[in-house]
Amino acid sequence: MGASVQQVFELFSATAPKGWRVELIEGEICVTPPANGEHEEIVSELSGQIRDHDKGVGRYTGIGLNVPAASDTGHVVPDLVIAPKGSFDDEEEWHDASPVVLVAEVTSTSTAERDRTKKIHGYARAGIPVYLLIDREEAEVTVFAEPSGDEYAQAHKHKLGLVVPLPAPLGFELDTAEF
Questions:
Q1: How far apart are CA 86 and CA 139, in angstroms?
Q2: pLDDT level of residue 70 (50, 70, 90 thresholds)
Q3: Which H helix or E strand runs over 25?
Q4: Please, are residues 133 and 156 in contact by the beta-carbon 8 Å criterion?
Q5: Quick check: 67 and 74 in contact, CB under 8 A?
Q6: Coil, strand or helix: which one is 47?
């Protein structure tokens, strides 16, 4: 009998080179190489603007989240996770997503389709209030809000370079001119 998807996922996770991401999204194992500099500059700028707005939140990169998947549990590593400080101060590799107030993904050629489709479902099912998708290929930012089932009730698109309103619980304007 063959190995389960979960067993193969655990094997890939244990043997992936440093800096590579291994995720289990909607029953599919996804292995992604380290991000390029432009990608990381966008994540850094976003993180900085959030910190400038609210110093009480933690800004996490490389944190693993458990999100409900089409079958079993999904394991994702968003580009940026915003949650109250101390939300992940344990020894676990994969964390409950309930304290998360925002996840952000910055598209790359290898991840764009998953970021635009499959991850939306897991983030919505997990009840994450805001999913911010920064789509470099489309030159736009989509703010997903009000999770309901495996979708978000709201999805507002904005061209990169504009000021983008973020809903509660963040509730401030994000300047995407530096993206």
A1: 34
A2: low
A3: strand 21-25
A4: no
A5: yes
A6: helix
